[in-house]
Design goal:
The protein is of the alpha/beta class and 334 residues long. 43% of the residues lie in helices and 15% in strands.
Length: 334
Amino acid sequence: MSESILRNIKYSILDLATVREGETPVHTFPKSLALAQQAERLGYNRYWFAEHHNMAAVASSATAILIGYIAGGTKTIRVGSGGIMLPNHAPLIVAEQFGTLGSLYPNRIDLGLGRAPGTDQATAVAIRGENFNAAHSFPRDVARLQVLFSADNKNSNIRAIPGEGVDIPMWILGSSTDSAHLAASMGLPYAFASHFAPTYFESAIKIYKESFKPSKYLSKPYVMACVNVVAADTDQEAQKLATSVKQMFLGVITGKRQALQPAVENMNTVWSEYEQEAVEQMLSYSFIGSSETLQTSLSKFVSDYGVDEIMATSHIYNHDAMLHSGKLFAGLFN
């Protein structure tokens, strides 16, 4: 039963261009390309980057540039943003950038849009300046992007060249229920950040499905859930590899962010009881273990929530182990 459930589900990757301890982005980017090329061979549906800023472990700040790098090094897999933090940018600039990508790599580029800054408040001020409250304009800016991509915009005084008339599927990203209402009202696909914001996942997708209004973009609701995945040959090995992502989230809650750390034998030497509780709450939707363990837990997840696609993000220090995890994950769906 569990195998048949997963065979109807598309599977994808979210990459933050993770910088490992002892390395720089110079080392990171070729590893992302190798992972994307393997993903293409293994039948993954899409490969997305997330926009984050001022984080030692995350090198995906110039998201559109990395999308072009990966699309140029692959042939068929969809490549996109998970997401572009729209309040950080003028909609016209986003339309031009993604119109360029869509012209270079037709029918392969996705534009996932979020309203959060993707960073801390001080950095958000540095990015947005006087537009610091631009998040309130998010629904209007999404609609503006749709106009800029439309071929009907050719008689406007403000046009996106390239961009106008280019087919760029747009997604609404979310970590709360606000985004669910917006995605439903606009008839757009919805991607939820359950990999770090599990609290509102269930209620958000319920709102989205119940409130969805069909549009020219989508006839029925489409939900993609992003989850943490660490797969290995044994549960014990996977649990050890997962200490890297646990250290990463520990840095998030303590404010002591650093490059991705190597795995450790015992997390109790790293965190306190209260820190452990906070990290494990954030990692509620994490799938860690052997293929057999993941087959059972992922199948239950899909059955319980009725998601249409699963996007895996895997913060694994050892690159070969990360590639192996991606291979084992793909095997669950085939």
